[in-house]
């Protein structure tokens, strides 16, 4: 479960096994990010609700494309326990067509503006890989954090912008672009390759002054089905980076290809993966179905606490 991280602690610090467990749990208890002018405790995982203000996202595209529908959806997610609302104006599903920066900014301005007016206290994440878009949404519309599907690869100005804005930054791994990412993705060792990728991106982000970094392995973004499940199975390996880990399994094809059907039939599989992810160190669950994710966290935390007590 957390064996790779504990072995790392023992190898390089030389601590006994039980002390290593204690220190890891202490680190988890102190793990937090600063967003919206307050400290957000991630010792119990937080749910990030997905809000796609797009006509073509793979599951809910077009459902919330006016301010009234959008605010009703956000109200429901907050009621169900969402701690963060992640707002995107461009679909990043495999093969999705590009959208101009102007159109993305128009969509996000309308969406985040409406959310800020109705729900001033909720944390808002802007889902964009463009530094220009991120800066406008944070500076002019009050977005609290940036969720970048390319970790600053698609727009090389993003690390500098995130550092200047002083907001939490989600660095996600994607091999290629949304248009090319599922065309024969190849890795030597998918988890080790991702850890090396993140280590380099973290170095660059730190140099640019980014304080709160969250990593996202990018399930479904330039990975085969086998890659996705190997990453999920070895999720605790990413704890070696000592940063919060966000996961996004919600209703993706990695679920529906296993259980059958489409995104509409992928909820139970998503809940199973989210429960496993929390057991293995995930700090943020990015989901369409907030209530079910909150339930998964509650069950997983009970299991983790019982497991830790039985080890000591």
Give a quick set of tags describing it:
single chain, 312 residues, alpha/beta, TIM Barrel, eight-stranded parallel sheet, two-stranded antiparallel ribbon, 11 helices, 10 strands, 46% helix, 14% strand, globular, disordered N terminus
Tell me about this structure.
The longest helix is centred in the C-terminal third of the chain and has 22 residues, at 290-311. The chain has an 8-stranded parallel beta sheet. Mean pLDDT is 87; it is low at 1-15. It is of the alpha/beta class and 312 residues long. The chain has a domain at 45-248 and 282-288: Dihydropteroate synthase-like (TIM Barrel, Alpha-Beta Barrel), CATH 3.20.20. It has helices spanning 3-13, 17-30, 67-80, 101-118, 131-141, 158-165, 190-207, 225-233, 253-259, 267-279, 290-311, and strands at 32-35, 38-41, 46-52, 84-88, 123-127, 145-148, 169-172, 213-216, 246-247, 284-287.
Average of per-residue pLDDT values: 87
Q: Strand tally, please?
A: 10
- Share in β-strands: 5-15%
Choose one word for the global shape. globular
- CATH class type of the domain at 45-248 and 282-288: Alpha Beta
- Level-2 CATH architecture of the domain at 45-248 and 282-288: Alpha-Beta Barrel
Helix content: 40-55%
Order of helices and strands: HHEEEHEHEHEHEHEHEHHEH
CATH superfamily of the domain at 45-248 and 282-288: Dihydropteroate synthase-like
Regions with pLDDT < 50 over 5+ consecutive residues? 1-15
What's the N-to-C terminus distance?
Answer: 16 Å
Give the structural class: alpha/beta
**Strand count, sense and closure of the main sheet?**
8 strands, parallel
Number of helices: 11
Strand order of the largest sheet: 8-7-6-5-4-3-10-9
């Amino acid at each position: 479960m957390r064996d790779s991280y504990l072995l790392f602690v023992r190898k390089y610090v030389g601590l006994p096994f039980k002390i290593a467990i204690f220190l890891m749990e202490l680190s988890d208890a102190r793990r937090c990010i600063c967003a919206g002018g307050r400290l957000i405790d991630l010792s119990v995982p937080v749910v990030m609700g997905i809000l796609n203000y797009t006509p073509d996202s793979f599951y809910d595209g077009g459902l919330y494309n006016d301010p009234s529908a959008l605010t009703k959806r956000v109200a429901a997610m907050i009621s169900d326990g969402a701690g963060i609302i992640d707002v995107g104006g461009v679909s990043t599903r495999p093969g999705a067509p590009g959208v101009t920066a102007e159109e993305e900014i128009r969509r996000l301005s309308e969406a985040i503006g409406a959310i800020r007016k109705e729900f001033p206290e909720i944390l808002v994440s802007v889902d964009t890989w463009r530094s220009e878009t991120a800066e406008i949404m944070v500076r002019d519309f009050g977005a609290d954090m940036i969720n970048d599907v390319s970790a600053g690869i698609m727009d090389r100005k993003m690390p500098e912008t995130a550092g200047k804005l002083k907001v939490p930054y989600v660095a996600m791994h994607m091999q290629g672009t949304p248009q090319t990412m599922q065309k024969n993705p190849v890795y030597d060792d998918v988890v080790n390759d991702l850890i090396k990728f993140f280590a380099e991106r973290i170095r660059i982000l730190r140099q640019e002054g980014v304080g709160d970094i969250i990593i996202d392995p990018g399930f479904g973004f330039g990975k085969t089905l086998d890659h996705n499940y190997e990453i999920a199975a070895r999720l605790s390996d990413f704890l070696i980076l000592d940063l919060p880990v966000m996961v996004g399994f919600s209703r993706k094809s990695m679920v529906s290809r296993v259980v059958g059907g489409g995104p509409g039939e992928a909820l139970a599989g998503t809940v199973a993966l989210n429960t496993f992810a929390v057991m293995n160190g995930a700090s943020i669950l990015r989901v369409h179905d907030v209530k079910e994710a909150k339930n998964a966290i509650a069950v997983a935390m009970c299991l983790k606490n019982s497991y830790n007590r039985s080890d000591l």
